[in-house]
Amino acid sequence: MRRISAGALAIAVAMMWLTANTNADQQAAGASTAKPAAASTAAKAAQPGAKPYRAPRTPDGQPDLGGYWSNATYTPLERAQNVTKEYYTPEEFKKVMQDAQARDETQTTPGTPADVHYDFTQFGLDKSQHTIAQNLRTSQIIDPPDGRLPPQVPAAAARAQAAAAERKQQGGQYDRVQNMPNGSRCIIMGGAGPPLRDAGYNSTYHIVQGQGNVMILTEMIHDARIIPLDNRPAPPAGLKQWVGMSRGRWEGETLVVETTNFNGRNPIGGGRGGGGSSDAVKVTERFTRISDDQIEYKFTVDDPQTWTRPWTALNYLQKTNGPIFEFACHETNIGVSGILGGARADEKRAAEAAAAKTGSR
Amino acid sequence: MTRRTALIAAIVAVALVGAGSVARAHHAFAAEFDVNKPIKFEGKLIKWDMVNPHSWFHMEIKGEKWMIEGGSPNQLIRQGVTSKTVPIGTTLIVEGYLAKDGTNKAVGRNFILADGSRLFLGGSAPGQPK
């Protein structure tokens, strides 16, 4: 018996929901868990005159954000260069989803460097096998309105050049463990934030609320961010952390979290020739539960030492099942020794080849 | 079959412009394993380490012990897969690439069961016969 394609079913369910909703700003949802109840709840909220959603409360009266949430998405941070509008039509979106699913399933070519990897599909790591929140937006960035990161200031380029020069002085990427990327060394990976960004896979968070604090545990990898809500003063400027230091407060139904005191070694929004944020960056996150199954997640990145203006992005946290298996990553398991060992083996072979060439002259 | 049916019903795939390539490039596999040394091994599973960032299949291949690298187990565990899902002693055919450092290690590009079918640990590989 041939299985029904999970991806095809998923797209069909998502399309049914998206087609039923005409208010573009309410079109976040769908979700790969595809519970009919979730879709109908969101659809009700989109109807004119419907009562606004009110989140359940914790025992001490906070809007309840607790539970397991996924921010896996195929919506890119920046709008693609060839896209000029804010939203896809449902038909365009269907095509975009099908293309992305096809890319997920595409196999690499044997004998190429890209093929030297385990198969994501075999381990359930394709996005099409994840819990994903759907929306028709063409980019996560909603401000600037063109959906793109703002231009960088000259100081950012100078900082990137200085960092590149320092890396060059330290030697090659595989010369010593300290030169390897943060992720390979299991120090921090893309999902930790703030801001919370889709890690690519294992994009799950566990939010726990207690009296006076909110904790966000990141599956990828292992960071547990404690957010005090007691209006305590800002931390001293000299105290720097990988995930910064957060202070939270409730503004009605929205949890607002401001984070500063980053160490600058895990920059936000790098790429396009720029190195991303500095240690002066301030991140403001806004969590608003908009249905039983979704939290609207907006974040603003303000870093005058990097960008000419602040920028704001929007994504969704979609309810998913738990628990989270502890990632317990330690220096990429035995990968670091394998990579460094591979580099030494390459050097030895190159030296032997050079010696043989010299000898044959 | 019930679990798989439930899984299919529970899964809504999606896809917008891809971060897949980013995820797949997160770790320098081509630095650790040799693209010029592809292998195809058949052996028996001795132990499966469900650890992060990458799981390891310990196998006995022609009387020697080997370690074959696979993917993060987290999504599998969420779907109910355990270290006993593939029983010890199962014959696996592994296609992959040897470690550059000469130790008995390889990355497992494809895990194939003795009957020739591909091993889909999560049971929900999109678009694949099963």
The gist of it:
Chain A has helices spanning 6-20, 36-46, 90-105, 154-170, 335-359; strands at residues 67-70, 141-143, 204-210, 213-218, 224-228, 245-251, 254-260, 282-291, 294-302, 311-319. By secondary structure, chain A is of the alpha+beta class. Chain A is globular.
Tell me about this structure.
Chain A is globular and about 85 Å long. Chain A has helices spanning 6-20, 36-46, 90-105, 154-170, 335-359, and strands at residues 67-70, 141-143, 204-210, 213-218, 224-228, 245-251, 254-260, 282-291, 294-302, 311-319. Chain A is built from 5 helices and 10 strands. In chain A, helix 1 runs antiparallel to helix 3 (90-105). Helix content of chain B is 18%, strand content 36%. Chain B contains 4 helices and 5 strands, in the order H-H-H-E-E-E-H-E-E. Chain B has helices at 2-10, 20-24, 29-32, 74-78, and strands at residues 33-49, 56-61, 64-69, 91-99, 105-113. Chain B has a 5-stranded mixed beta barrel. In chain B, a hairpin with a 2-residue loop joins strand 2 and strand 3. Chain B is globular and about 35 Å long. Chain B starts with a helix and ends in a 17-residue tail after the last strand. Classes of the chains: A alpha+beta (361), B alpha+beta (130). Chains A and B meet through helix 1, helix 3 and helix 5 of A and helix 1, helix 2, helix 3, strand 1 and helix 4 of B.
Distance between the termini of chain B: 11 Å
| Spatial order of the strands forming the largest sheet of chain B | 1-2-3-5-4
Category by helix and strand content of chain B: alpha+beta
Largest sheet of chain B: 5 strands, mixed, barrel
Largest sheet of chain A: 10 strands, antiparallel
Query: Tell me, what's the shape of chain B?
Result: globular
Q: Helical stretch count of chain B? A: 4
Mean pLDDT of chain A, rounded to whole units?
85
Order of helices and strands of chain A: HHEHEHEEEEEEEEH
Rg measurement of chain A, Å: 23 Å
